[in-house]
């Protein structure tokens, strides 16, 4: 185990199961990005079972990877222009503006319902 001098945090050395898990997560990210889904259902088992991480740590890494993948997809969708629609970006902002209030309302109601139900 290596220890940081500044924070006294112990770091595990890079092991073959972690490398195998990283490669499988990369493949899962490519597949889920091409399919337009987040990929958390693929990342979590790979990190927990193959890489040997604790479930809490694997869940945190999975959430981080899904967030990073969606940020990269949005940036790519903003940069890439569609020649089919007059060199506009791939994001339809009219649909995004129409659906955002409904999503925010659903999140607010869902949060309130979650507090009330067991």
Please outline the major beta sheet: 2 strands, antiparallel
Tell me, what's the shape?
extended
Q: What percentage of the residues does DSSP assign to strands (E)?
A: 5-15%
Residue windows where pLDDT falls under 50 for at least 5 positions: none
Helix content percent band: 55-70%
Question: Structural class per helix/strand content?
Answer: mainly alpha
Rounded to an integer in angstroms, the radius of gyration calculated over CA atoms is: 19 Å
Strand order of the largest sheet: 1-2
Provide the residue-averaged pLDDT: 88
Tell me the span between the first and last alpha carbons.
42 Å
Number of strands: 4
- Helix/strand order, N-terminal first: EEHHHEEH
Task: List the quaternary state of the chains.
Answer: single chain
């Amino acid at each position: 185990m290596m220890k940081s001098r500044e924070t006294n945090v112990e770091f595990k050395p890079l092991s073959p199961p972690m490398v195998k898990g990283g490669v499988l997560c990369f493949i899962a990210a490519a597949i889920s990005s091409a399919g337009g889904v987040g990929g958390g259902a693929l990342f979590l088992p790979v990190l927990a079972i193959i890489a040997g991480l604790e479930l809490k740590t694997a869940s945190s890494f999975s959430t981080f990877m899904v967030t990073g993948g969606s940020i990269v997809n949005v940036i790519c969708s903003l940069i890439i222009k569609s020649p089919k629609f007059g060199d506009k970006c791939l994001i339809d902002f009219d649909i995004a503006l129409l659906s955002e209030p409904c999503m925010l309302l659903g999140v607010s109601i869902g949060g309130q319902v979650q507090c009330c139900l067991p």
